[in-house]
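Subject: Interface between my chains keeps coming out wrong

I've been trying for a while to get a sensible model of this assembly. When I model each chain on its own everything looks fine, but I need the whole thing in one frame so I can look at the contacts. Pasting all components below, labels as-is. Any help appreciated, I'm running out of ideas.
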Amino acid sequence: DFVMTQSPDSLAASLGERATINCKSSQTVLYMSNNKNYLAWYQQKPGQPPRLLISWASTRESGVPDRFSGSGSGTDFTLTISSLQAEDVAVYYCQQYYTTPWTFGQGTKVEIK
Amino acid sequence: EVQLVQSGAEMKKPGESLRISCKGSGYSFTSYWISWVRQMPGKGLEWMGRIDTTDSYSNYSPSFQGHVTISVDKSISTAYLQWRSLKASDTAMYYCARGDVVRGVGGMGVWGQGTTVTVSS
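Reply #2:
Try treating it as a single job with all components included. I did that and got this:
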């Protein structure tokens, strides 16, 4: 199985600061035939289902604020929140859908300092 | 509005059977796969398996294969997650989720509200 490892497990940043979450896959999720990375990022707030933020490693979903961005390719990926807002307090997960079983990272908890 | 609406919370005893549901609306139900995702209390997300809503082909994570069954009734736009014999360790929140790509794989952009399953003697 693909193992997705996120770092850090948690982070605290001040309002307006940049927050960066890393995700490393045990195998590449880059599909060579279409040059797409099969990697998504989700946000989960307490008591709510997850929300898809980014798919294909860097494509922001409709309605997602542009302070959220995804980057990376192959096995190493990053979710960046350019200016942390109070409403961004949540747990963030990466997920590969390159092959089944699809797998999630363990999650990164983001808090306000 | 595109949505997935799940059945309500369940409290069961070990060894009992259970089926929970996930009804899609606001879109062409058979155009997208449905997945099920488990979240144990205070823990992360685990993908359990998925089903092709057109032909009922399903595949499972090895962690769940043989313990749960995913099925679909496309006539009522509903997917199911079923257990024949529950264990206390099945206590969790269960989410259904729909992929974002028609007849293909992609991020899961539509989620149900979740169904809490509690298994206790």
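Reply #3:
Confirming on my end. DSSP finds no helices and 13 strands in chain A.
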